[in-house]
Structures are given as structure tokens and as C-alpha cells.
Amino acid sequence: MRVILEGFMKLQDTIKGLLSLKREGGYWDFKKEWYDDKGELLLDVLCMANNLEDMDAYIILGVEDSTWSIKGVEADPNCLPLRNLSQIISNKKYAAYAPEVDLQTIYLEEHEIDVIIVRNTMHTPYYLTEQYKDNKVDDPLKAKVVEAGKIYVRLNDRKAGVGEITPYWCLEHLWGKHFGLNQPILKRLSVLLDEPNKWIFDWGNKDYAYHIDHPEFRMQRIGDFEQGWWPAAAFYIHPVMHLAKLNILYHNTIIYETEIWAFDEFRKYLPKATNCCVSGKPNYWYSYYQLDTIEGKMLTIFTNGSMDISSREPNYNQFLTFKDEKERKEFDSYLYEHFEDYTDEQIADEYKHQIAEDTKSNGGGLIYSAFQVAKSAKIYGDWKRMHKS
């Protein structure tokens, strides 16, 4: 609920800021009222989806676009709920993807203002493969026609491509965005790592992996695996870890250096995890993957999207996973607050086999050990269940 409220307040502040400019721009447009022509609605959404600012775009309904006065849509007979809006946009025939839209209502000067949010994605350019025209408008001769194969673009405060040829540089920008060519090399890598099904790998037999559409981006293991140590290894049936250096290359240039880890006699391959010292507990650690980082995205690839770190045994949460830094910090606070929920004796009894394996292999103990992994995993399980409820 708190997250929803924060999102609502942020959107309201954004729209207030755009309204204060008293003009329209490259990713926002004001409309006095809802559309009675669905073709015009589709045309505006396509333009916003193809905006050149590479930002979420806003169609703001209920604001006069010449005086900037707030009229509201509370009495507008053409208002649409999100479900109907999504159907209008998604059920057309596109070259590849349909624009992603959301609909939110905010309140300004005691009026309801509807905001169509058109999400910024890498799937540009958006265009139809079959012409669309709304034949249900009062005067079909005046209905907007959305042409097949034509790329409409939001260019400053106007629609480019309507009654004209879309400028070449606009098309170049949109296709460059699609292929990640407008981004720094690590950003391009990050975009490609978001396509786990397009990475070809077989770590059991090959020392490399590559992106099927962009094989100039590849992962290369350096040298042979060597036996290493990580307390999480004790949670696998065969409690030994091996590791090797792993470089990510663009053509022949190394753009990122990390490691590949192998567990359970090379049955499970994972990217290098991050070690974190618990806030307020300087001698207490856990290991994790943050899914919006390079290693986190590699985890998605290595596990074929499952994020399952287990091999032949249950998933003990020996490595924790977080959506982003904010979520990890939320858990960190929860861990600190609930650190005493379980006594050392309870943890030692429940995870005695793993702790014994760690002690036998690595000396064990209560500092940076399987014991720490177990306690973090136990509290993490509680935290995850709390988030699901």
C-alpha cells in the first residue's frame, strides 16, 4: 500500500510539474477530454511510444491545451477503464510488440485528471501492419486513419509522420534504441542480458557463451576451474566449490570481469555472488544476487529464468535474491530487527548437517560460515513469506 501511495504521489508531482511549464513537449500532451475517435487515441499512443526522449510518456486528459486550465474528466462520457484502454491498444496488428500502457487518475483542483502512461521500452519502433480506422465515430469521413507500415513519432510537441514522411533521423534513433546502439557499451550489455532465452551456453562442455543475435557479445571462461571455498557450498549434496575467472567481451575487448562458480560436482553453475555485511552486525555476512545488476541478470540466464540456485537438494536460500537495492535494504533492516528471532542453538540444530560439512571442509565456526548462511536463509524465508501475504 505504501509503495502504491508513493507511486501515486510521484505521478501527481510529475503532472503538476509538466502543467507548470504551460506547454506540451516531447513526452507529454494535454487533452481537454477523452477521445471519441479510437483511431486518434491509437495514433497518439503510437507517437508517445515512439517518443525521442526515451522516457515514459503521458497523455494528460482533462486539461485545456491552450489555456492550461483544469477541466476534469469526472463527467466525460468517453472515459475508459484501463481494461478497455488496453484492449483497444493491444488488439491491433503490430509489426512486433504493442505499446505498453497504464492508466492512472490523479486529483488537481478538486477535479479528476486521467493520465495515460505509455511506457518507455526497447521495442521501438512501434507500427501497425494493418491499417486501422474507427468506423463508429459520428462522421466516418473525419475519422483518423492509422496507416500500416508507417512509423509515427512524437517530435517535440507534434506528431511526425501524419501527412508527412517521418524524418530519417527519427527512424535511425528508434532503430538504434531497439538494438541498443544509442547506449554505452555496458548499457548495451545490460539490455542483452535482459534476454535470457537468447544466450547460448553449455558450461559443462563449453568455456564460452554468446548472444544468438549479437554474437559479438560473449562470455569467456579464463583457464580451468580451481577448487575454492564459499560457505554456501555446504548446502549442496557434494559440498565442494570450484571457480574460474569469467570475462565478458565485446568483439575482442574485455568489458566486464567476474567469476563463474560451480557447485555439486559441476552440476550447478552460478555467477559470482556479492557478499554483504549486515548493518549493525559488522561480523555478520550473507551472500546475494541483485537481479538488476550484471551478475543478477547472469543468474537469470544461468538458471533459464527460474532463479533456482539448488542442484539435487532443496533450495535452502544459501544465496539470497533481491529485485533491486531498495529491496535488499528492506531485507537488511528486517534481518537486523529479527536477528534474535532464532537462537544460535535453533539454527545449529536445524542446519547441523550443513554446518558440520562446512566445519569439516573449511574449519567452520560462527564467523563467515555455513552458520551465518543458515541464519540469513532462515530469516530471509520469513521475510519472503511476509511479502507474499
Layout of helices and strands:
Layout: H1 2-20, E1 28-31, H2 38-49, E2 57-61, H3 82-90, E3 101-108, E4 111-118, E5 132-133, E6 145-146, E7 153-155, E8 158-160, H4 168-178, H5 185-193, E9 199-201, E10 208-211, E11 217-228, E12 241-250, E13 253-263, E14 268-271, E15 274-278, E16 281-290, H6 294-302, E17 320-322, H7 325-337, H8 344-350, H9 352-362, H10 370-388
Structural class: alpha+beta
Q: Helicity level, as a percent range?
A: 25-40%
Percent of residues in beta strands: 15-25%
Shape: elongated
Oligomeric status: single chain
CA-atom Rg in angstroms: 26 Å
The strands making up the biggest β-sheet line up spatially as 9-10-11-12-13-14
| Poorly predicted tracts of residues | none
Q: Give a count of the beta strands, DSSP E runs of length 2 or more.
A: 17
- pLDDT averaged residue by residue: 92
Quick summary of this structure?
By secondary structure, the chain is of the alpha+beta class.
Overview of the structural elements:
- The protein folds into two domains: 2-178, Methyltransferase, Cobalt-precorrin-4 Transmethylase, Domain 2 (2-Layer Sandwich), CATH 3.30.950; 188-388, no CATH class.
- It has a six-stranded antiparallel β-sheet with strand order 9-10-11-12-13-14, with helices on one face.
- It has helices spanning 2-20, 38-49, 82-90, 168-178, 185-193, 294-302, 325-337, 344-350, 352-362, 370-388; strands at residues 28-31, 57-61, 101-108, 111-118, 132-133, 145-146, 153-155, 158-160, 199-201, 208-211, 217-228, 241-250, 253-263, 268-271, 274-278, 281-290, 320-322.
- It has ten helices and 17 strands.
- A hairpin with a 2-residue loop joins strand 12 and strand 13 (253-263).
- It has 389 residues and is α+β, with helices and mostly antiparallel strands.
- The protein starts with a helix and ends with a helix.
- It is elongated.
